Structures are given as structure tokens and as C-alpha cells.
Fold this sequence. Notes:
By secondary structure, the chain is an alpha/beta fold. The protein is built from 11 helices and 8 strands.
Amino acid sequence: MTHMQKAADVLAVARRIVFFTGAGISAESGIPTFRDKLTGLWATYDPQRLETADAFRENPALVWGWYLWRRRQVTLAQPNAGHHSISKLAKAGWDVSVITQNIDDLHERAGVDAVVHLHGTLLNVKCFACHRPIALEPEQLRISKEDELVEPPRCSRCNGRARPGVVWFRENLPEGAWLSAVRLVRTCDVLISIGTSGVVRPAADLPEMAIRAKATVIHVNLEDVSLGDGREIMLIGSAAQVLPELLGCLGVK
Ligand code: BJW
Ligand code: ZN
């Protein structure tokens, strides 16, 4: 039996399915991943320089400008067949939840309502000082090129700087999101982990948590990222190819 058929058989009888997604699922929508060679954002940028609170403190205009550019990139992108497959499975009657590390809104735009965002979202803006949400006008979000320095707007309540509503290294994950994720993972039959390198914790602990809770873990990735447990099924290929094929085996169009 092929790995694909084995995965379809497991899903056919699954009661609760959790999708756990990383940058790889949005790659075919044109959003670069973090750690892939050549196309990864970090091939040209040093993450330590841009994705930490220290970096923002040192050079807020560089970091804010860079996030505005990424925001525009996300706004112009469209969900791909991988994102759409997840919502098709839900519409076909499966009990499906989505936990994502991604800061884009492509799952939502593919029709999934309650997405758990472990690393925040690019579309939210908050105050660096008092953490309250900040609403910005469209012209404050405009940008012309990626290396433009843009001074962040100020918070109307405390005059702190606006920052993206994402989770940087050494920052805690939003507590509610993390608790929801753990609850979903501990009670699912199948966790489908898509397009994540599994190096950033605590998110990377979720597949192992699912295995400990006796769920089957199906990985979808360009490379073998399995943990070496008998409960895993590794499907090698791109999300936009593998997921429609998997749905095809289940008779979901
Ligand atoms: C495809 C595909 C296709 C490609 N189809 N597949 C030492 C110092 C400081 C911190 C730490 C430390 N040691 C450990 C830590 C903790 C740290 C951590 O884990 N660091 C490791 C890197 C070592 N974690 C944290 O700091 C977290 N907070 C925390 O732990 O708080 C407690 C604490 C407090 C005080 C001190 C220390 C700890 C927070 C983590 C926040 C992560 N934030 C980012 C940036 C978000 C904002 C932004 O985007 O700008 O989140 S980092 C980045 O990595 C982003 C992602 O969500 C995350 C995961 O990446 P992902 O999704 O896995 O992408 P890639 O690129 O890595 O992988 C893509 C995969 O897809 C590959 O496998 C490809 O093969 C595959 N693929 N195309 C299918 N078409
Ligand atoms: Zn403020």
C-alpha cells in the first residue's frame, strides 16, 4: 500500500483532524519560506536583524518598512490548492481545525473560519509600548519597495511606536492560541503537519504531542521531516499537489 493510500485510509475513519501548517503551505502562493535556501527570506536578510524586539528598538524604521513590504506581498497573494483542500475537507463533513504558524490570512481567505494563529498575524498592528491594538489608515500602510525605511506611526494613547502583531523570537505565544492548539492536538485522531521545518518551538512540539496522545501524524513536505515514530506517515511533495491528491483518494472533489 502506498503512503498516500495509507493516509487516505486513516482519514476516511478519522473523527477529528487537525491541520498544523507552516510557511511551506503558502510557498506556492508566492510567499517565501523562512529557511529554504535561495528563496528563503533569510537568504538575503538576517532574521536577528529584523525579527526581534531588539532589532525594532535599534532600527524601527527598517523593521517597520520590511513588514509593510511583507504585508503588501500577502495582500497580493492568493490561497493555493493546498489551502483550498483543507476547506474542501471541512465542507465535505470532516471535523477539521487549523493551527498555523503563518502570519498570513490565506487559510481564512480559502474559507476556514476559526484559524489558530500561533505566531500572530501580519494584518494586526499593536503598540510596542502598551500592546494595545492600533488602527491605521490605508495610506499609512502603503510602501513602494522592500528596503524602504518607514518611520512607524505612533499610538494615540501612549505615543509608543506601532509594530506588527506577530510573535518575535523570545516573545511568548498568545496564551489563548497556545492553549487552544494544545487542546485540539490532544484530542485529535489525526494531525496533518504541512510545510514546516519543525525547528521553532514551542510550535514544533505539537506533532510529538499528537503522537503521545496516540494520534496519527501525516507530514506533507518537500523533504522527509518525520520524527521516526511508527505513528507517522510521510508524504513527500508540495502541499498544492499532495493535498488535492489525498482528497482525490477520499473521493472529495
Ligand atoms: C514545503 C513547500 C511546499 C517548502 N509544500 N512543504 C535561543 C535563544 C532565543 C530563543 C530560543 C533559543 N533556543 C530556543 C529558543 C526559542 C525560540 C526557538 O524556537 N528558536 C529556534 C530557532 C532555536 N522560540 C521562541 O523564541 C518562541 N518564543 C518562546 O519560546 O518564548 C519563550 C521564551 C522567552 C524568553 C526567552 C526564550 C524563550 C517564539 C517563536 C516565534 C517565531 N516567530 C517567527 C517569525 C514570525 C513573524 C514573521 O514572520 O516575521 O515565526 S520565526 C519563523 O519561523 C516564523 C515561522 O512561523 C516559524 C516557523 O517556520 P516554518 O513555518 O517551519 O518555516 P520554514 O521556512 O522553517 O520551513 C518551511 C518548510 O516548508 C520546510 O520544511 C520546507 O521543506 C517546506 N516546504 N515549500 C510543502 N510547496
Ligand atoms: Zn500605546
